[in-house]
Design brief:
CATH architecture: 3-Layer(aba) Sandwich
Largest sheet: 7 strands, parallel
Bound molecules: NADP nicotinamide-adenine-dinucleotide phosphate
CATH superfamily: NAD(P)-binding Rossmann-like Domain
Helix content: 25-40%
Structural class: alpha/beta
Order of helices and strands: EHEEHEHHEHEHEH
Strand content: 5-15%
Distance between the termini: 49 Å
Radius of gyration: 17 Å
CATH topology: Rossmann fold
Strand order of the largest sheet: 3-2-1-4-5-6-7
């Protein structure tokens, strides 16, 4: 779909990937970008409209959908990390991760589906992770696996109204979320560019880096191929 002239809404837009989603949408000719956040910041660019949106809050999401009634493309980017071990975390801890990464994204999709329909279909982008397919991060991996499934359901459910639903997978990327993790990281600008390219090309899914492509292709192998640590047991 052509991004030029479109109105975009990004959740979690204050930093990390979210900020790149906003900036690159404008670079690609978007007419307007709602930069949403729990505590919206001022932007120097006139085409950016800061807007309050907490994905865990029904009233906040409903208010944003009412205000941003001209949105063509929704980027479900907001997310939280945490709970690397399911046994060490409490169930409440895991529920908190799901509240944002799973039910928050679903809440936004449900609220904006009628808006996208009124605009002729538009697009919904859900930011998953390579950890949707690789369960090495406890509750976070579980949340991204659940979101992946939700995205696949929404793609089918929203097809009749002409909405493109794009699922994005990526590995370690240099944002505040993993500032303390010492690994090789993707440049967030490259990841967001690959995702916008996928939207522009009308693709259902984007594997934004090599690790996502590798893990995706390994899913057809026996489970232990993805978990070498099991070989010792
Ligand atoms: N960085 C990576 O390695 C990586 C890899 C795979 C997938 N991802 C995914 O990429 C997406 C963007 O993350 P990031 O890496 O850019 O991390 P980030 O810089 O921490 O950004 C996450 C954003 O989500 C927002 N957020 C959290 N809870 C929210 C809520 N209840 N309502 C609205 N916004 C909320 C945060 O806003 P506040 O400023 O209000 O906290 C923050 O702006 C996430 O879905 C993440 O899971 C990241």
């Amino acid at each position: 779909m052509d991004i030029s002239g479109k109105t975009v809404l990004v959740t979690g837009a204050n930093g990390g990937l979210g900020r790149h989603f906003v900036e690159q949408a404008l670079d690609r000719g978007a007419a307007r970008a709602y930069a949403t956040a729990r505590r919206p910041q001022a932007w120097a660019e006139a085409r950016v409209v800061p807007l309050a949106l907490d994905v865990t809050d029904d009233a906040s999401v409903a208010a944003a959908a009412s205000t941003a009634s001209d949105v063509d493309i929704v980027i479900n980017n907001a997310g939280v990390g945490g709970t690397s071990s399911l046994l060490d975390a409490t169930v409440d801890d895991v529920e908190r991760v799901f509240a944002t990464n799973v039910f928050g994204a679903l809440r936004v999709a449900k609220a904006f589906a009628p808006v996208l329909s009124s605009r002729g279909g538009g697009a919904l982008v859900d930011v998953h992770s390579v950890l949707s397919w690789l369960a090495i991060a406890g509750g976070y991996s579980a949340s991204k696996a659940a979101l992946w499934s939700i995205t696949n359901s929404l793609r089918v459910e929203l097809a009749p109204q002409g909405t493109l639903v794009v699922g994005a997978h990526l590995g370690y990327t240099d944002t505040p979320m993993i500032a303390d993790v010492e690994v090789e990281k993707n440049d967030p600008a490259d990841i967001v560019s690959a995702i916008w390219d996928a939207v522009a090309a009308g693709e259902d899914e984007v594997l934004a880096d090599q690790v996502s492509r590798d893990v995706r292709s390994a899913l057809s192998a026996p489970v232990r191929a993805l978990y070498p640590q099991l070989a010792a047991h």
